[in-house]
Amino acid sequence: MVKKYVYLFNEGNASMRNLLGGKGANLAEMTNLGIPVPTGFTVTTEACNKYYEDGKIISDEVINQIHESLAKLEDTSGKKFGSDENPLLVSVRSGARASMPGMMDTILNLGLNDKVVETMAKLTNNPRFAYDSYRRFIQMFSDVVMDIEKRLFENKIDELKEKKGVEFDTDLTAEDLKVLVSEFKEIYKKEKGEDFPQDPKVQLIESVTAVFRSWDNPRAIVYRRLNDIPGEWGTAVNVQQMVFGNKGDTSGTGVVFSRNPATGEKLIYGEYLMNAQGEDVVAGIRTPLPISKLKEQDPKIYQQFEGIVNTLENHYRDMQDMEITIEEGKLYFLQTRNGKRTAQAALKIAVDLVEEGMLTKEEAILKVEPKQLDTLLHPAFYTEDLKKAEPIAKGLPASPGAACGKIAFTAEEAKDRAALDEDVVLVRLETSPEDIEGMIAAKGILTVRGGMTSHAAVVARGMGTCCVAGCGTIKVDEVKRTIEVGGKVYTDKDYISIDGTSGNVYGEKIKTVTPEISGHFATFMGWADEIRKLKVRTNADTPKDAQQAAEFGAEGVGLCRTEHMFFAEDRIMAVRQMITSKDEEQRRRALDKILPMQRADFIGIYEALEGKPVTIRLLDPPLHEFLPNNNEDIKSLAKEMGLSFEELKLTVENLHEFNPMMGHRGCRLAVSYPEIAEMQARAIIEAAIEVKTTKGFDVVPEIMIPLVGEIKELKYVKDVIKDTVESVMEEKNVKLDYKIGTMIEIPRAALTADKIAKEAEFFSFGTNDLTQMTFGFSRDDASKFLSDYYDKKIYEQDPFAKLDQTGVGELVKIAVEKGRATRPGIKLGICGEHGGDPSSVEFCHNIGLDYVSCSPFRVPLARLAAAQAQVKNKR
Amino acid sequence: MVKKYVYLFNEGNASMRNLLGGKGANLAEMTNLGIPVPTGFTVTTEACNKYYEDGKIISDEVINQIHESLAKLEDTSGKKFGSDENPLLVSVRSGARASMPGMMDTILNLGLNDKVVETMAKLTNNPRFAYDSYRRFIQMFSDVVMDIEKRLFENKIDELKEKKGVEFDTDLTAEDLKVLVSEFKEIYKKEKGEDFPQDPKVQLIESVTAVFRSWDNPRAIVYRRLNDIPGEWGTAVNVQQMVFGNKGDTSGTGVVFSRNPATGEKLIYGEYLMNAQGEDVVAGIRTPLPISKLKEQDPKIYQQFEGIVNTLENHYRDMQDMEITIEEGKLYFLQTRNGKRTAQAALKIAVDLVEEGMLTKEEAILKVEPKQLDTLLHPAFYTEDLKKAEPIAKGLPASPGAACGKIAFTAEEAKDRAALDEDVVLVRLETSPEDIEGMIAAKGILTVRGGMTSHAAVVARGMGTCCVAGCGTIKVDEVKRTIEVGGKVYTDKDYISIDGTSGNVYGEKIKTVTPEISGHFATFMGWADEIRKLKVRTNADTPKDAQQAAEFGAEGVGLCRTEHMFFAEDRIMAVRQMITSKDEEQRRRALDKILPMQRADFIGIYEALEGKPVTIRLLDPPLHEFLPNNNEDIKSLAKEMGLSFEELKLTVENLHEFNPMMGHRGCRLAVSYPEIAEMQARAIIEAAIEVKTTKGFDVVPEIMIPLVGEIKELKYVKDVIKDTVESVMEEKNVKLDYKIGTMIEIPRAALTADKIAKEAEFFSFGTNDLTQMTFGFSRDDASKFLSDYYDKKIYEQDPFAKLDQTGVGELVKIAVEKGRATRPGIKLGICGEHGGDPSSVEFCHNIGLDYVSCSPFRVPLARLAAAQAQVKNKR
What we know:
homodimer, 875 residues, alpha/beta, Dna Ligase, domain 1, D-amino Acid Aminotransferase, Chain A, domain 1, Glucose Oxidase, domain 1, 4 domains, 8-stranded mixed β-sheet, 35 helices, elongated, magnesium (chains A, B), pyruvate (chains A, B), Pyruvate, phosphate dikinase (chains A, B), metal-binding (chains A, B), PEP_util_AS (chains A, B)
């Protein structure tokens, strides 16, 4: 049987979205519902994929089917391609499975040629309309299909307007446009070496091919990456009979929503313009009217329109975004789709639709994009201000929100100036743990280097602070205290504004506004919590973060990194004494100083969570991270510590590592220096006893041993911890429950999880490191080559942002299976950055983890993603 | 049923080696053969394991069984523990499954106490003997069982000898020894706070426990690691009635071999001493006689002895190493085991035993340790010189052999001085690829940093040059051009000698000798080749190495690293131009310069191998490895290259990586700069065409894409190569076969091998990197903490030397299975350092790989290991 690559609108329906694309499926569905839709057909996504498989060639098979469908279209419309009596004009539009607005190409008025344009002029009695359509078509076809620079055509229009002394395109006459048409054709001939194609069938096939090709244009690739759309989906192409909103005063065009997409208010919302085509609305030369005006202008049409809008909303059970055209008093719907909406609107609409009985709670849960919740939790730029601003650079959208302030060049400066109530944005080549206080003080953080999981990005997300990372086009001169972008120099007196959601950087002051969280949020999230099976914890290192996360609904701490506490000003010295110790005894003395501070940290976190479980990870980073690197700093620290420069320098050199990521860190530190683990275990348990005694919270501390790769390694450290815990409990004469488990972040741990589970009472998948080791690339270095990988379509997603289910996910599955085989009740969670990514959360749900843990500001997102996963895949 | 932990000698046999240990099983076997063996019993290895499982406590169950067996021993011997008529004395000796000479502890004369010593004096009419035995027992028991310092006892002996004005222990009288005994008991009491135990049963249980404990002493742990003996084997303990060779002139003791262990000559070989105990032979105070003298001295005893030796050799079908004692004219065999032998002897004995019809070739193949072959291929120290030398330091035995020369501090110096016929040893903190010419010129290489797979180690092994790596106790002052060890300073005028087999470093000149390879080698290796199924290739980057490997029997090149060629003096400049190129065009110009050089390299290698397959890996290291690091060098290079310092410095900075091992390297370079892969593919194919045309060798180049983690990545680079190859073949109008495959060295590649195999025609397991990624530690950094891991018995083996079958091996197995599922005929090999490790070779054989590839000097070893694997596990 011959494969069907082309469907007439009346042959499809809404369920065929994957094959026909969103637009095509909805055009088919509307056709079936009896809604006035200009006739047409859809070339399938499979034809697009075939085009790529065949080496970017459209096959005869597909061409023939297009011609067959075209013939049918001619039959039903009574019009004919190239006819001098009743010529058929069509639009050619892309339509992928997921909506990708503005990402791909559209060609209108296809079918016009030198002969047809005359016929049109006569038929419409409107030569200006005919020639304007023709010149637009030549321009679009040349640009979109033939890749001729748009500018060449625009220059001609500008020249002509100048010559005629007029301001607007609309001031040009039919004769002027006729001249333009012949000039445009000359440009075409000059650029392509052949005449502008006069055969509408050639125009059509070339245009369809151009749409296929546009699936792989750079901006489409980037859009797909940002929106998790796989490249293999392909796009469909819709060929549809043209209708004209610019045929005079009884014609018009409009874009409307069945509810307000900004607020969610239940009221038809939109704009229309009479005697105009879609383009004119966008161009902004004439001001469109609110759709409510149509009711006054043409009540009959409005009534028909309103009826169809309601039909569509009821049919799709969601807010609809529609495109309409009125041609000489006849209403057409050119498109309908579920409308994009703001986060506020999404919540209101979801809650309203449940209350109206249109949706169940489970269905409503699917109506809000988890990532949208981000915008509810962070400041945004004031829209009016933003409209006027031009970005000066673009980095990675590392932590959402918007921030504005004067430039601070060091963390210390940021802290000091913020203390004087100045708004500052901290700009650094990259941040390090020592910068933590400045990062807290700053409104936003901008770094030149580093990716989505760089120190700046991770810490900023944790704090909910806006951050743009890896903005390589900015040149920072730390000595002169300036930054330079595009030839312009900014000092600490200058404002910059950064948008952590888009990655945009602005060289000016832009006002920010903090969103209000409505009651709908609570209602909606309540439903999410009812539905989901996967628990959501948070990654929090401080009582403040833990508190914040608890307010956002975290059900515990999944990862408390103990090393961040080590950098605080009041304890880094003790930590450094510990590191430079000559022997165990000296080290123990230094650790004794750190003990009470760690204990206080843990008390704070336990109290913030009021007895919810807390997973505390033992010291993880290599020790050299706590020491300075350059001779200057070593000198001054040596002095401070009462060591000789040579002594300290030698320590620093001895601790130097070629690949710190794979160095002396994690549980390897505890193997070499068990006294560190002892101190931490003591602090964890003493704090739990304190909180139990004074506040009555029954904390069950979960002590997590990082970077385990071998059961004996885990056993060794576990024994050290257990001995300490038991003796603390004996000293204090208090018994409490606790768990000892491990992070699974080394491939070998996953591969030998059956053995590891003999000793581990819980696994927490550290998917950041597991991703690094599984892919064999360091997240700090990968940004250098990942862009080449995206360009060449090798990777479509940043594996540090979205869990790689094929490779890393395979290891996680192996570990889950093997771990449960040994210890059926083992508690399983994930604490990598992926815990806050919706598709990764879904994966965790599907493979049966108990919880995900993510940064505080991502907790709501994870709760929603978990609920959606349960609706999609009940477990 | 009660588990049996103790076996009388007549209850066991040779097949029970795992349970009874080697010594115990052989004592049982000899007993059954009717050979005169003093009676006794063996406490099993399971009892040892139980001791550790029970938390280092010997259980009552085991104690009771020992007491029961002791009672039986008393019955059969007619002697009794502590008896004042006929007291039983026993020896307590360890005996593990594998022989570990000198590694664990022995206690002799157990059963003596203040009363028994008197009885013995009377019974033997030899009070001197009795008291000498007692003082020895106290000394041994105190040292071995009670951990009292030996020195304390030796001091007393020295004091006494001085006081008496005598030179030798043997000059001390019975009365002197009696005094010593009481002084020894005082020391014991002072040290332990209690009297020396008088109850022989207490002495016995304490001693058995001490032997169990000694299984885990540091030197035993190190020995096990060097000899691949798992910790969980445990040791057995043999308790045997004492016989005395020191009871007068009709008594004696000896150590004999059924053939000469140094040469393999078929002649009973050994030494004996009358009126002596084993200890005396070792102490070297009296000179033992060759065993042939015994024939003259006591022909009757000798005849019995010779008969038993022949019986044992025929029974065990191998050269035996035996211990005998003659007590008052009665001959006893205290031990027999397959004798240790030199490599030369091992080969001769194996070949002779086959010729004598005692062994089949398959059995003979198992009689030579693969690692022994190393000593046949490398120089060794002249034994007489070595005896007089004392090591000044010890590093890692990174590449076998011995070397002696004056110290050279830089590679350039080594090269220059070697050119003047001076023998030099290159001493560096660590080596880098730029040092290659100096490394070739030096007799040996000594580094302060780096492990078994550091640059120095890998390159040295490849060249067959002796190397000691990671010798941290040496302080190198590169400015003063001195090294300091233990307070002594050495300059470039001083000789040092290094032993790459032991890791020893000597601060003096020691003569080296080059071994002769006998005809037995060829015969024996011929059998190995007949038997084995696994092919053996070599890792070789130069024609010279390839040639050497071919002489050693390599069947092709499994890994030709193309980057080593990049460092040669005549091309590094072109490589640097390539790296500092501003755009593709500039880069292509630089690559054009490199092309003819690469082509010449490949021609050389193809020719050396005369048409055998050659796997060539595309450029692998990150580009910054080719640029200098410090400002000085950058400055001078910038000048040389006509760049500004700032420009070059910026390039160096931009290329800097946090974790180079996980950075922009391997196929990632080819993705970013496909023109590099193009140039290399062109050189590979042009060279093959050249060699085919001029020499008639039909080379099938195997182009290997490194560091692949994702199928699309492989596909991209493969397409680049394929296009180049096809166009080269078209240009030259020659067709030839070639293969494109990949290294499996990233966990994700192994996990997705079913996908990878769609594009890869072969897999070569890069187990060096795969080990790093699977364990999550960098081989450059791991040496810092691995020693802690060995000390704490977490790892018993260096996973970079011996393939970790549990974790890394699991990934290899997954990849083999998945790869074969997609492409049943896929060629599978291994090219990591593990290709030259016998147990890893066996693993590769067992999982069905097609070949292993190792450095040239390990090829014979791998051939033998492969044959042994086939004998052990037919496939």
